[in-house]
Design brief:
The chain contains 15 helices and 10 strands. Strands 3-4-2-1-5-6-10-9 form an 8-stranded mixed sheet. Helix 11 crosses helix 12. By secondary structure, the protein is α/β, with parallel strands linked by helices.
């Protein structure tokens, strides 16, 4: 079965292909290097590849590297047949620079000339982007001067130190400033890629890509780098970790202390004590937090009414949602 038919068959109702200009095939170049973070390349590449299912011919994805050929990733496996970056045909539509550990990235930027090459290619590219610490390559090329930018949370201080003209956004998963896009740690490159696809092909195609990749949720750029659910699970027992995961997908159900305690076969009193001790937050407050974060995401990503957003987030009314947003999401 052809690849497109195989994956489309997995979708209950795929969107109709977009009426894209058949002559407009956007050149997407992913820049790798020795020691590159594998997911920084694989996640965006998969997203653009899946976008082809809804808009055939929309993208041509190329993995490039300073010298071409085989490039070993930080995960230990290799990317074969990469294109030498200086052999790429110009102009590049979308150039995405992956990240990696500091030593590998410094070698690519300075010893292998990726920084100087980026500065030249960016002059004619429609947009330039980075994943994770790939932001340091953009900074070295002078592309982040007086721009807002994101990078991995652990590298924010270093980016601010080495590139004082960059306005580092420390709690966003991706940032757009003009035609320059930057994303935070590793998997956020997928969130950014979906936003790039949505800009080109529309939201239905981007959402179909998300469904094909089995994403739990499409996150906006202003989503925090640190997941509340992940933090809650850090010190929790297996039983409570599984409950927290279930709660994330069932925000409209009864999440009272009594109902949650029943799911894990505990008395309400013992459950409340265990949850507060292990998650470091009382159950009612945690429920309000995750519902508020979900509502905030829906308000940013959709044009739904407040009534609909409140209902889909598990709030009894828009007023209750607004109070929770003020208390837990920092806005109304």
């Amino acid at each position: 079965m052809p690849r497109q038919a195989r994956f489309t068959a997995l979708s209950a109702k795929p969107p109709a292909p977009q009426d894209t200009n058949p002559t407009l095939c956007r050149s997407v170049v992913l820049l790798a290097f020795e020691g590159v973070e594998a997911l920084d390349i694989a996640a965006p590449a998969s997203a653009f590849s899946h976008a082809e299912l809804g808009a055939p011919g929309a993208y041509r994805v190329t993995v490039a590297s300073p010298h071409g050929g085989t490039v070993r990733t930080s995960a230990g496996f290799a990317l074969a047949d990469t294109t030498p970056m200086r052999d790429l045909e110009n102009p590049v539509d979308t150039l995405i620079v992956a990240g990696g550990e500091e030593t590998a990235l410094r070698r690519a930027i300075y010893d292998d000339g990726a920084g100087a090459w980026l500065a030249q290619v960016a002059l004619n590219a429609r947009r330039v982007a980075s994943v994770c610490t790939g932001a340091f390559a953009l900074a070295a090329a002078g592309l982040l001067e007086q721009r807002n930018a994101a990078t991995h949370a652990n590298a924010c201080d270093l980016l601010a130190q080495l590139s004082p003209g960059t306005h580092v956004q420390r709690d966003c998963i991706f940032v757009r400033d003009g035609n320059v896009w930057t994303s935070a740690g590793v998997t956020t490159g997928l969130d950014m890629a979906l936003a790039l696809i949505e800009e080109d092909l529309g939201r239905p195609i981007a959402m179909q890509v998300a469904r094909n990749l089995a994403l739990f949720m499409v996150r906006s750029g202003t989503a925090p780098q640190h997941s509340a659910a992940l933090q809650a699970q850090a010190d929790a027992s297996v039983r409570l970790r599984e409950l927290i995961t279930w709660m994330q997908g069932h925000l409209t159900e009864d999440l009272s202390v009594e109902a949650l305690a029943s799911r894990v076969h505990m008395s309400p009193r013992n459950f409340a004590r265990a949850f507060a001790a292990q998650v470091h937050c009382p159950p009612a407050r945690y429920v309000a937090q995750v519902r508020a974060q979900h509502a905030a995401a829906l308000l940013r990503q959709t044009d739904w009414s407040h009534d609909k957003v409140a209902a889909r987030s598990g709030f009894g009314s828009p007023d209750a949602m607004t109070r929770a947003l003020r208390q837990h999401a920092g806005s109304a």
